[in-house]
Design brief:
With 225 residues, the chain is mainly α. It has 13 helices and no strands.
Length: 225
């Protein structure tokens, strides 16, 4: 069932008709994801949810795993962003002394705090999953703070290696199944020196895990473009 959906999503990236069909069929899913962070709903929140669902379709690839998991995360994040923006432009109720507006602002603030706490919880869960994945490679999060390349040329070389990995199905299969970075093959395909790849192995492995897994928050911090 999941495989069939993922294939439809990949098709929807190229077909407007298939995208429209998905938006119609998964309207209840989008609504549920929106209401999970914005119980009051509203046209703006629902529209934001559908835009986020479309964004999820556009950025989805098979390496990202479950499409619905990705879509739900993006929808919830976009709705939280909407609430933040709406809260930021509201007038300060202290200025006019209206009790009704005071109550509305308190409710809005409480809602925003709830959304932020929810997002923070999602980030913690994502970090826990990422940490567990790193452990399979005998890598700790603390080690990554020293693993990031400092020079721009080195960063670009590492990105070249990472791009090759995530776009090469055969190499990626080796990576996931054998828990091994195919250094020799990468050197041959990219022209990047073996020593550079080995010296930055932890960073490269972590970036591949992030961009081929369900880690949308972390993908914002570890960009490849």
């Amino acid at each position: 069932m999941a495989d069939a959906l993922e294939k439809r999503v990949l098709s929807a990236k190229r077909s407007h008709e298939e995208l429209e069909a998905l938006l119609t069929e998964y309207r209840p899913f989008v609504l549920s994801a929106v209401l999970s962070v914005c119980p009051a709903g509203g046209d703006d929140a629902l529209q934001t949810g559908f835009i986020a669902f479309t964004q999820a379709v556009n950025i989805y690839s098979e390496e990202k795993g479950s499409f619905l998991s990705l879509a739900k995360t993006i929808i919830r994040r976009r709705v939280v962003d909407l609430i933040r923006k709406e809260t930021a432009v509201k007038e300060d109720p202290i200025l006019d002394g209206s009790q009704e507006e005071d109550t509305g602002m308190v409710q809005t603030t409480s809602t925003l705090v709830y959304r932020i706490n929810l997002e923070n919880e999602e980030r913690r869960e994502e970090m826990a999953a990422f940490t567990a994945e790193l452990q399979k490679w005998s890598i700790s999060v603390n080690q990554l703070s020293k693993a990031s390349p400092k020079q721009e040329t080195t960063k670009n070389a590492c990105k070249t290696v990472i791009y090759e990995m995530i776009s090469n199905e055969k190499l990626l299969e080796t990576f996931k199944n054998e828990k091994r970075l195919p250094v020799i093959e990468l050197t041959r395909k990219t022209g990047i020196k073996r020593k550079l790849i080995e010296d930055h192995r932890r960073y490269i492995v972590a970036a591949i895990i992030i961009h081929t897994g369900d880690f949308p928050y972390m993908q914002e911090y570890v960009r490849l473009n």
